[in-house]
## 1
Amino acid sequence: MVYAVGVSPPSSELSVLSCAGCGACCREQGAPPDYVALRISPHLADDPSFADDLARYRALTGEPLRLLNQYFHERQAGLRPENGVCIWFDAENCNCRFYDLRPSTCRVFELDSPGCHIYRRRQGISVETDS
Ligand code: SF4
Ligand code: SF4
């Protein structure tokens, strides 16, 4: 779904050209990863590399924040796995419900990267769908 950001190889070398219908990388995060890290490890707020995520995290309101809180509540109650489908993932439409609010990890993750291939394989999705 999401995030092909950063430098990508020329399209002629791509085996995965699109996130359409995939979302494999969102299916193992549990919740927006950097916001989870900031909640669990508050000292990360002092880490300059978290500055952008800290600002986004602190600005969360409404449904995005409610879902993040729900994730922690359900996880604490043993009702939700730590690394299941991201609570912001819209499985029906296969995209991020709050794409503009997604954290850095989701922004920099590259389509057709080795990690992308690993997630796809783990979710039973071909890495050669679009080749
Ligand atoms: S695993 Fe790869 S193709 Fe699938 S949504 Fe993530 S970046 Fe896109
Ligand atoms: S925050 Fe959005 S892009 Fe990131 S893992 Fe969750 S659903 Fe996917």
## 2
Amino acid sequence: MANTIDFDSVRKLSGGALDGDAERNYSADFPSVRDQVSAEEWKARCDLAACYRLVDLYDMTYLIYNHITVRVPGTDEFLINLYGLTYKEITASSLAKVDLDGNVTWKPEGTDYGINSAGYVIHSAIHRARRDVGSVIHTHSTAGMAVSAMTAGLLPLTQNSMRFNGRIGYHDFEGPALSPDEQQRLVGDLGDSNAMILRNHGLLTCGPGIPEAFNTLYQLETSCRAQVAALAAGPDAVTAPPQDVIDLTAKVFDPKGIRTYGRLEWPAMLRKVEAETRNNGYPYYAS
Ligand SMILES: [Zn+2]
């Protein structure tokens, strides 16, 4: 069954800024809002901007497309990228705020950039259904798309991928726009996992916060890259350990087990962003 899409409402929600009209304000220079928001929101803004930069640094971007969202602490509003900026350009102050229905409740003054409402629907469906989720990341990386098109899905070929054994959802492709019905199926397919392969589409991870969601994305992306590389040798040339070893590995890396992966790593990730993006010609991420 094919979903339908209301193009007029998408244009309206996107602030009408879909055509690249030269007379509109498409400046990528945004004044700081640090003094206008709570300390908690500023931290969420800096972490989210850093996460966009990390997804770029690890080569998981797709021009101006895709989204990473984070809940503004204590609210039902979410921070999201303006539609039109590359991830290298995203700063803490450039992030728009949206509610669960995709209404833009705040965006930088004077800008004609809006948000990509159609893309946000995947995120809002999960934020609405999973109160334990603070952040959602969706990518169209080459390796992620490649594995999403494989009949077998993610294979337990590496230690990285074994952590997802029994802990990853699959959602069949139904077209680029999500109907309310499909949103239910998407949420059902994710279940209580924090990772999902959108078949013939890409990858999705989530977590209580950005540190956990980014770490899961990194593990999933590297698993997919390794699988694509290994399968280039042919399906008969690869091997996987016995099921009990796969199960043990998944247990060791259970985020509810020994530790929640991502939190110890996050300060190091911030140092990486700091070192690799300071003075690189793009705006400072935490500005
Ligand atoms: Zn997508």
